[in-house]
Amino acid sequence: MPIRRNLTTLSDDDLDACVQAILALKAAGEYDEFVTAHATATMRTPQQAHMSPMFLPWHRQFVRAFELALGPSFALPYWDWAADQALPDPTKGKIWDDDFMGGEGDPVTTGPFRQGQWTLAGGGPLVRAFGSPPMTLPSAADVDAALAVNVYDAPPWNDVAMAAMGYESFRNQLEGWLLKPTQAFQPQLHNRVHVWVGGSMDNMETSPNDPVFFLHHANIDRIWSRWQAMHPTSGYLPAAGVPGVSAGDVMWPWDVAGSVVTPDDVLSTNLLGYVYDSEIQRSATAGGPHGDAFDDSTTIEFIPAIINSVSATWNTVITSLSTNYKYDGPAPHGTPVSDHSGSVTVPPHQTIQAITVYTHKDHDKTGVAALSIEVSGQPAQLLGPAQTTAGQRFAAPPGTYIAGFVGRASNRIYSLGVVALPMQQGF
Ligand code: ZN
Ligand code: ZN
To answer: Which of 104, 341, 360, 413 is deepest in the core (most CB within 10 A)?
Structure first.
């Protein structure tokens, strides 16, 4: 599963691959279709993409469609602008390097999207004007304040000053229209980043003309995903009864019969097929068999959205051992699979909390196994060989479920760790 990573953690090669994928999409004429779709959506009635509860699901679907257009397993990086806000000079963040997004200017004259290399849909060069009019990027405290709001949205379901009306709305606070009674209105959070980058980004209709749009919105989506994990009982609102923006209403342009998309369809990033690096929690109990802590230098990494089945096979070198294992979770709870190989099927919409690896008591020692997991719509993928010890239990911390394994090479023997993801709505 694609892992969306903080762009500051990407290698130069990965950053370049992102640039090249965007340039290829532009050359194919598909990039501008995203700009046009965003502009058209912005001008439609009722408002769905902006000033609406659908702001977050609409952009989640939009950014995911863009990511898939870049490549079936491509992972967009995200721009954590709140971290850049704390830099001595936020205009010198890694995102603006000459070999990534380039810098500011009217027109932009540095980087891969400079004048002559990148023409906006509708014509003209890219323009950026950092921090103008004078303002800062949103801070980590601003993000935390939004995350603390535990109601997704509230009447009148638009951009008005809900705080002054006694309502709370996570969506409106994150989108950035919220007028706090104690301060003069300024664009906040999402909106503030558009204004801070300025130029092409400061245009509500055509802001996707600047590729930074997608890195910004990946971060907005990440914040929403984090909020969902923090407030597991706070669902999308309105649930029903508000025409055009309720949980089961179709979001334009995904209104083609048979493949419509509603907010209800996009509540889980895992079901959409991606995950954020900040959501991957490696639990203390899920290290390698020798208690190794897993680090990011993995050689196998595969994080499925939902594990549909688990199977184990012993390496034929160790034929005297047999194994079984089980998963702890909803029925069939603890179903063991025994003797050399086998698999268990996870019921639909169920998740795995723990997997225990066993060996026969008389061979209670370390063995080498290969674990594989199968995900809906994908072939089983081998994740081993894995070195495991008898009775070893891979457990997910409370509130999380096992979504996959991370392998790490050590002396040519792979060890496995469990990747635990936060429980999300929809499970
Ligand atoms: Zn937008
Ligand atoms: Zn935006």
So the answer is: 104
